[in-house]
Amino acid sequence: MGRFYVTTPIYYVNAAPHLGHAYTVIACDVLARHHRQRGDDVFFLTGTDEHGEPVADAAKDQGLEPKELADRNAERFKALMPRLEASNDFFIRTSDDQHKRRVQEVLQRVHDNGHTHLGMYEGWYCPRCADFKCDTEIGPDNTCLIHEIPLVWEQEENWFFNLSTFQARLEQLYAEQPDFVQPETRRNEALSFIKSGLQDVSLSRGKLTWGVEVPWDPSHVFYVWFDALLNYYTALGYARDGEDLTDRFWPANYHVIGKDILKFHTVFWPAILMAAELPLPEHVFVHGFLLAGGGRKMSKSLGNVLDPFEAMDTYGVDALRYYLSRDVQFGADGSVTLDALAARYDAELANELGNLASRSIAMLRRYRDGRVPEGELDLADEFAGLAEDVAARLDGADLTGALDAIWQRVRRLNRYVEAPAPWTISKDDVRAADLDRVLRTLAEGVRTLAVLLWPWIPASSDKLLAALGREDSGYAGATFGAAVPDAVAELEPLFPKQAR
Ligand code: ME8
User: Fold this and answer.
1) Is the distance from the beta carbon of residue 229 to the nearest atom of ligand 1 less than 6 Å?
2) In whole angstroms, what is the distance from residue 212 CA to residue 226 CA?
3) What is the whole-number distance in angstroms between the Cα of residue 460 and the centre of ligand 1?
4) 3-class DSSP state for residue 352?
5) Which atom of ligand 1 is nearest to the CA of 9?
6) Residue 121 CA: distances (Å) to CA of 52, 135, 218, 300
7) Which residue of 246, 255, 266, 456 has the fewest CB atoms within a 10 Å radius of its CB?
8) Which residue out of 24, 254, 262 has the highest number of ligand 1 atoms within 8 Å of its CB and is therefore the one to mutate?
9) What is the pLDDT of residue 422?
């Protein structure tokens, strides 16, 4: 048993949550639930990023104070979590006083350790990314490659973080910890950014007031990215009343992020932690973009967003959670549409898993009065090593591979239930022992799958486990043969056809 600390990015409150945000939350929730199954001490953090220009500008556009907009939209992100069945242990808001105090404490240490200087900043700036762009990050006519909006030429006196002095230590980190950034393509991208030569970066903004005050120069607020990144650390200090969880959970095992914020998490973040003399996270996992039809990024500013609430209203939360892990290789970009979700729902959740569960339970009730017969199990070889394989894949954040390994057994059980045709056997008393074995294998196979699938489809797995009289979803039960059900009860269809 170990401990597992996993984080999502904290989301800007300049607009409402969309599917991209839900995606990272669901991925982290799968990992958090899996580790809880294994009995690990788990902390799962998500929250909102409330300071800086993206939020201040959006508030101004709507005639609101930044805090009013933040309060309004933070509630919407908070409300998204239970809708997604996310099991986050805390929801941080960077406008929390305790967060701000701890940001000041850590960055004061960075300053006291001599890693800052006052300088003049000049450069192209994207107000949506809150990011100064280097030459390779500037699109045609000085536009932002991510948001496709014009960049602004900014010039002001800032406090700088001496990032350039960390170049060698960062290169050493990447050499010593080859899986610090995953997948490997993203690691290579980050490393080549580092090797291309690091420049010092702005640590404060003088023009902005919506942010955390710089303690040694109160006319400035911290550049929002440093305030935001520190959430992963500050939250542990006050997530539990009267308790400091820092020693228990820091450093994080996994920061899961989208590829849009790679530079901040794989370069700035480890460097600022080094400067503050704090331990570094074990892994940053960088996933791809969910793309809308036509292959463009789905984002608030491009206005082509697939609504997670609509998807959940129609197909249920488990279907959304399943679909996103299944259809988009975790780590790569992938298109997502409601039509593709519907197709997976019908073909896989309803027909393959739902039918398998319903048929197995119906046969046990019809032929054996709901009692699971004693005897031998088939298919032990087919399930051998599966629980270990899934755990190993999830240790590397391979959500899609782990789910696929499980799904191959869903299909194997379907072929099994087709092959000896239990309803034919049942007519032949001589073969009653064969039927016993088939029914027992189905009961145990379906139970094993329900435990393994629990991180992805917790509500459906819980229903299924309840019908099998084995409610424990702990990982000891992920091994085939570990907890053969005694008796089964009626099961409502897990994924009804009439969902729409
Ligand atoms: O960047 N596909 O916040 P943000 C997949 N506040 N994931 C997507 C996505 C898409 N189309 N769109 C968004 C910020 N995401 C900062 C982060 S962290 C210290 C501060 C997800 O509201 C993905 O995780 O713009 C991405 O990295 C994040 O939302 C950006 O959210």
Assistant:
1) yes
2) 10
3) 28
4) helix
5) 18
6) 17, 15, 18, 29
7) 246
8) 24
9) 64
- What tens digit of pLDDT does each residue of 55-71 get? 998 999 999 999 999 99
Distance in Å, CA 10 to ligand 1 centroid: 8
CB of 9 closer than 6 A to ligand 1? Answer: yes
Residue 263 DSSP one-character state: H
| SS3 (DSSP) at 216 | coil
- What is the C-alpha end-to-end distance of the chain, expressed in Å? 42
Q: How far apart are CA 400 and CA 34, in angstroms?
A: 14
Smallest CA-to-CA distance from 446 within 397, 400, 377, 497 is with 377
Q: How far apart are CA 80 and CA 63, in angstroms?
A: 25
Ligand 1 centre to CA of 257 (Å) is 7
Residues serving a catalytic function are 18, 21, 126, 129, 144, 147, 297, 300
Q: With contact defined as beta carbons under 8 Å apart, do 336 and 328 qualify? A: yes
pLDDT in tens, 141-172: 999 998 889 999 988 899 999 999 999 999 99
**Does the Cβ of 91 fall within 6 Å of ligand 1?**
no
DSSP 431: G
- pLDDT tens string 209-244: 899 999 999 999 999 999 999 999 999 999 999 999
Instruction: Supply the DSSP symbol for 120.
Output: E
> Which ligand 1 atom is at minimum distance from the Cα of 48?
6
Mean pLDDT of the chain: 94
Q: Which two tokens stand for residue 115?
A: 């890693």
pLDDT digits (tens, 9 = 90+) for 116-131: 999 998 889 888 887 8
In whole angstroms, give the CA distance from residue 452 to residue 412: 15
Verdict on whether the full-model pTM lies above 0.90 = yes
Which region among 51-60, 83-92, 254-263 has the lowest average model confidence (pLDDT)? 51-60
Instruction: For a ligand 1 pocket test, name from 260, 320, 333 the mutation site with the most ligand atoms within 8 angstroms of its C-beta.
Output: 260
Q: Report the C-alpha gap between 149 and 151 in whole angstroms.
A: 6
Is residue 161 within a helix (H) or strand (E), and if so which, with residue range?
A: strand 152-161
Q: Beta strand 3-12 with 41-49: parallel, antiparallel or unpaired?
A: parallel
Smallest CA separation from ligand 1 atom 8, residue: 20
Q: How far is CA 8 from CA 331, 399, 413, 481, in A?
A: 14, 15, 35, 36
Q: Which amino acid is at 225?
A: W
| Upstream peptide bond of 66 is cis (omega within 30 degrees of 0) | no
Please work out whether the CB of residue 20 comes within 6 Å of at least one atom of ligand 1. yes
290 pocket-lining for ligand 1 (C-beta < 6 Å): yes
Distance 441 CA to ligand 1 centre (A): 44
